[in-house]
Amino acid sequence: MAPKIRPQVIAIEEHYLDPEVLEKTGGRAGGTPRARERLADLGEVRLKEMDEAGVDIQVLSHCPPGAQAFDAETAAAQARGVNDRLHETVRARPDRFAAFATLPLKDPAGSAAELERCVDKLGFKGAMVHGLTDGLFIDDQRYWPIFERAEALDVPIYVHPGPPHPQVIDIYYKDYAEKYPPILNAGLGFTLEMAAAGVRLVLSGVFDKHPRLKIILGHLGEGLPFLLWRIDSTFADASRGKFTPANFRGLFCEHFYVTTSGFFSDPALLCTMWELGVDRILFAIDWPYVDNAPGTAWMDTVSLSREDREKILNGNAKRLLKM
């Protein structure tokens, strides 16, 4: 019997931390001290854990807040420094690393220019943005030049969670946040923020203006695949009164991709496959916030055909990110 050949594994939401961002945030970026230590490692520890779990390539992205931490006046120049340092890491190990750019969103025009520089000059695969910037969601029209540039470059924008708005924290979570801190992030807060961001992007009209724009959401779509039928049905019914869009589900399925980052659930994956199709799902782990091994072990056992498993583990990333 011929030996079983393991599929290549490309994980596309794997984070790191740049020292200039850490300094700008007063040492708070990255989460816990242990997370910050691991985020800062772009060598021995990271590669060892990738090898142990069978991860061949990480697409590196800056953890929140990335270049969104920088002040508008200096953000573009500081983002260039962060991205140039990441490029050096990728250039040293192109067999193991690729990259998403971090963008200085407080300077939207500078963000569009930096995206183009990172893709054309540095070979980056797109960009990752995090949550709110000065209280604004990413669908705000001042950010549309970034989407215009992403469409022209044919690269995706990965919309990643950030902390909820302070007023949301005060109204929704403060009663439980002290005793149960995860309610502010992956326990609930991140999911609700990103589900809102995804819905807002569809409603904003940005896909009418940029019909080839591609958006990635992590964590199996932040709950939206499960909600698609209900959202679409509600908007379609309301469209009789000139309410739009009447085809929410179609727009979402046409423009969004999702990843498995930090969400290793068979039922959730199958729901997502039924709603979006397997070609829209990419493998990710969310290292170091989630360990590598559970992610690859799950993909070894989840009930998928060999073809579908390979699409999720590497084929869809190769196609979308041109790897």
Write down how many β-strands occur, each being a DSSP E stretch of 2 or more residues: 9
CATH topology: TIM Barrel
**Rounded average pLDDT:** 95
Annotation field: number of helices: 14
The radius of gyration is 19 Å
Q: Write the CATH homologous superfamily.
A: Metal-dependent hydrolases
Straight-line N-to-C gap:
32 Å
> Architecture, according to CATH?
Alpha-Beta Barrel
Give the tally of structural domains: 1
In which range does the helix fraction lie?
40-55%
**Shape estimate:** globular
Could you describe the largest sheet, including whether it forms a barrel? 6 strands, parallel
Low-confidence region ranges: none
Characterise this structure.
Helix 3 (44-53) packs parallel to helix 13 (292-301) and helix 4 runs parallel beside helix 5 (108-120). The chain is α/β, with parallel strands linked by helices and 323 residues long. It is globular and about 55 Å long. The chain has one domain: TIM Barrel. The strands form 2 sheets. A 6-stranded parallel sheet has the order 4-5-6-7-8-9. A 3-stranded parallel sheet has the order 1-2-3. The two termini are 32 Å apart. It has 14 helices and 9 strands.
